[in-house]
Specification:
305 residues; alpha/beta; 8-stranded mixed sheet; two-stranded antiparallel sheet; 9 helices; 40% helix
Length: 305
Amino acid sequence: MTEWDLRKLQILRTLRERGTVTATAKALHMTPSAVSQQLTNLAAQLGVPLLEAHGRRVRLTDAARLVLRHTEPVFEQLECTDAALAAYAQGEAGEVRVGAFSTAVPALVVPAVRSLRATHPGVTVRVREAEAAEAYDLLSAGEVDLALSLAAEAPSAADPRFTRLPLLTDPLDIALPPDHPLATAPELTLTDLAAEPWIFGGSGPWSDITRRACESAGFSPHQGHSASGWTAILAMVEAGMGVALVPRMVAARREGVLMRELGADRPVRHVVAAVRKGAEKGAAVGRVLEALQAAAGPASGVTRG
């Protein structure tokens, strides 16, 4: 099989465009003798004459034109490759795999993806839902490029494996049935609800968050019912079976549930993004981080971290 030398083919292609060896040499910043030598070598390599005398000049042979006709798509593809690499380097293209906990997907990831589609359509985001702590395991294993997690479930900010960026502070509101005696109280605190049956999961991050919030307010919550999905939790609240803490960024809401802000002892959770150390310098990853930070501002009325 013939070995193709793209540099020599480029010289031949330029000669076709410029018409003379001198003009070709000038365009390619070469000497005329170097141009002639390279084309002589290419003809020997291909085993066909590429130039023929035409008065005091040379012109391409039919074989040379055949070669260029069939190699033109190669040059086109190389141009496309150069453009794609330039776009990738500038953050205009690339694929970023994001691991995110369930409530972060509709509140942060989806708005970020919508924004990127409008501003950087070449950047593809692939989403994998994962528990807050699991997202870091996926990140460490290289299965995702960016993790959205809760600061309380994340490794220390001093962990040398990751770079963490605060995204937002998500207040926790209290879900009450509309006919609850405290539904119209001018101000509501967690301690006002210490005697209530609480609805939260038997284990996992949300169980820990609820217990920690109540214990910080001075009481241990009585778990009246156990559920991990917001649909089930809010349905039980609506039925008057108990009360529940609900992150403000949770998209799920029910008409029969009253959401109240808490007062002085209002608990919050901190949402962070993380990448493997050094990956934040990647252009496509940087675009996704920027879009997530932009989405974090108006996300469900929460505040930036």
